[in-house]
Design brief:
Layout (H helix, E strand, L loop, with lengths): L2 E6 L5 E2 L4 E6 L8 E5 L3 E4 L6 E4 L2 E11 L2 E9 L3 E2 L3 E3 L11 E2 L8 E2 L14 E4 L11 E6 L17 E10 L4 E5 L1
Parallel strand pairs: 11-14
Antiparallel strand pairs: 1-3, 1-10, 2-9, 3-8, 4-7, 4-10, 5-6, 7-8, 12-13, 13-16, 14-15, 15-16
């Protein structure tokens, strides 16, 4: 987190495309650069896992125009979700390059998590999910894993230990030490 939106020229509670905003920054921001606006982090965790991670939803982008009176002045260049005063600024994440699918080296057990702040509570094709496994577990971008259904979706009762009810295939798109982001393909 590099800074926080402290004020705006707009009197409305919600900020929108083109609004001039004022940012108090802990780090030096570069005039003319574009930064991401987020209200994260959102904590990702599950009772079945001893790991937790963070999700930073990108609400929009701000371009820094100048620095006056120890505040950076910028304007909201794009918006994807609702931006409010108090939202924070971070470096713009790099774009994910085209990824060639590769097989996982071995079977790996993990927990799939969905950030309900940026997605629905159920997942579907082309939706982003998180997995509580990362580079320490041997994951690399491009690996494809199949998930299996073991519980009844209506009552959550256990059906089977066997992996014969395929649920989805997940393409790993980003990896950190303990967590990965993937797309359901």
């Amino acid at each position: 987190i590099l800074g926080e939106i402290m004020a705006s020229r707009s009197p409305s509670r919600f900020l929108s495309l083109g609004d001039t905003i004022f940012i108090e920054a802990d780090e030096e921001l570069t005039i003319g650069s574009v930064y991401a606006i987020t209200d994260g982090p959102h904590t990702l965790s599950a009772a079945e896992s001893d790991r937790s991670g963070y999700s930073y939803p990108i609400l929009g982008h701000v371009e820094i125009k100048e620095n006056q009176d120890n505040l950076y002045v910028g304007y909201i260049k794009s918006g994807h979700l609702i931006v409010q005063r108090g939202a924070v600024i971070m470096d713009l994440p790099g774009r994910i390059q085209n990824i060639k699918p590769i097989p996982g080296a071995e079977s790996l057990e993990g927990v799939i998590l969905v950030d309900s702040e940026i997605s629905t509570t159920t997942s579907a094709q082309h939706k982003q999910v998180f997995v509580n496994r990362g580079s320490e577990d041997g994951l690399k971008p491009g690996m494809v894993f199949r998930t299996y259904q073991h519980r009844d979706p209506s009552n959550n009762k256990w059906i089977t230990d066997a992996d014969f009810l395929p649920e989805a295939d997940i393409l790993v798109i980003q990896v950190s030490e303990d967590f990965s982001a993937g797309l359901i393909i």
